[in-house]
C-alpha cells in the first residue's frame, strides 16, 4: 500500500520520490486542501479505499495513512 | 483630449502560428495558414480548427502547476513569462502593489467543465474534482498570473466575447493613466475549441465548412469566405507609462495612444449591418489619440472571415477613415482566437508599427468588391504613423486601440 500511495503522489502530484517517507505529512509534501480531496478521490478510484480528506489530514503521517488505507479498502 | 502615451515594453504570444512572438510573427508575415483537420473534433459537425501544437505546459511551468490550470490559463502563463523577459522586468525586484493584471477571456475553461460533466454523469458528484472551479472560472486567468508574479495590484478578467483582449488592453491603459498602477500585464487568452462549444458555433452557422481545403478555410475579406475557423492561444502585452519606461531605459516597441469601447445595442450575435457600433468606437479612439481619421495608415481588422461581419466592419472603417488605411486580417493565418484575438492582434499591430511591415491577409485571392478599402494581399513595407486594432464581440460589444511608433 505504501508503494501504491507513493506512486500516486509521484505520478499525479509530481512529488519528489525522495521526499516520500513514512514520517512525512501531506503538508510537508506541499499538498493543499484541494490536493488532499483529489488524493482521496484518486485513492478511491485506484486502490478502492474510502478515505475522506478529513481522514487523510487527521491520520497525520504517511505511515498512518497507509495503515488506515489498509483497514479501509472496500470489499469489492 | 491628449492623454498619457502608454508604452508597450513586452510582448508574449502563444498562438497556432507559433509558441512565441518571433515564430508567430514570422508565420503571420509568411501568410501561412494554420487551419487543419482536428482529431479532437472528429465526429462533430465541423472538425476544423487552428490549434496551438507542440505546447508543453509542464516543461514551461512545472508539471504540478500546469496540472492545476485549464489550458486557457496555461497559454496565458507561458505568454506572460515571455512578455516579462521581453520587457526586462523581474517580479522579484518590483513593487507588486503597483502591478496590475487585466486580461480578457470569453469562456473560461469549457474543456474542464465538459470533462467534469462526464464524470458527474458517469460516476456521480462524489467524483467531481475539487479543482473544477479553480480551473474553469474565467477570472482565474488573472488570479493565477497575480499569484505567480506576486502582483498585488488590481487583478481582473473582462469579458466582451471576441473583443475581450482589446477591451482588457484599453482598460489597462486607463489604470496607468489614472496612476492606479505603474505596470499592467494585459492581453487575453482562450481555449474553447471543445466539442460542445464547436457544436454550438456550428448550429449558429458561424463556421467555415471548407472541410476539403482546411488551409483555405479562413479567408477574411475574400469574396468566397464562408465563416471563421476556431483557434486558441494567448497574447500578452506589458504596459507602462511612457515616461516610466524611458526612465528605466526600457526598449519601447510602440505606444498605445488610445483605447475605446462601444455597443451596437442591436442583436446578440449579428453585427449592426452598417457597423455603427464599430464606427463609434473608432471615432472615440481617434478623439482619445488626438488624431483625425485621415491620419490612420493601417488597421488590423477584426474580420473573422464571415460574410456579414467583414463587410459591416469594412463599411464602418471606410466611413470614418476614408480611403487611406491599408487593412489586414491576420485571422487568415491564426483563425479566430475569440477572447484572445484582440490581444494577439494588438501585439501583431505593435510589431507592424515597430518594423514598418503590414502582414498579408492569407487566402485573399478574390477580394470582395463591396469592401471599398484596400486589403493587403501581400506583405507591404511602409512607415506607419498610426494604426488601429479593431475587435468586435458577440453581444455587439466593440473595442479599438490606437498604436503609434515609439
Description:
The complex is a heterodimer of chains A (76) and B (406). Chain A is mainly α and 76 residues long. Helix content of chain A is 55%, strand content 0%. The longest helix of chain A is centred in the middle third of the chain and has 15 residues, at 33-47. Chain A starts with a helix and ends in a 5-residue tail after the last helix. In chain B, the strands form three sheets. Chain B has a ten-stranded mixed sheet with strand order 5-4-6-7-1-8-14-13-9-10, sandwiched between helices. Chain B has a two-stranded antiparallel sheet with strand order 2-3. Chain B is globular, with a radius of gyration of 20 Å.
Helix content of chain A: 55-70%
Gyration radius over CA of chain B: 20 Å
Count every helix of chain B, treating DSSP H or I runs of 4 or more residues as helices: 14
Oligomeric organization of the protein chains: heterodimer
Largest interface: A-B, 9 and 11 residues
**Global structural class of chain B:** alpha/beta
Widest beta sheet: strand line-up of chain B: 5-4-6-7-1-8-14-13-9-10
Distance between the termini of chain B: 20 Å
Low-confidence stretches of chain A: none
Judging from the principal axes of the Cα atoms, what is the shape of chain A? globular
- Say how many strands of chain B there are: 14
- Strand % of chain A is under 5%
**Averaging pLDDT over every residue of chain B, what do you get?**
97
Low-confidence stretches of chain B: none
Shape of chain B: globular
Give a summary of the structure in a few sentences.
The complex is a heterodimer of chains A (76) and B (406). With 76 residues, chain A is an all-alpha fold.
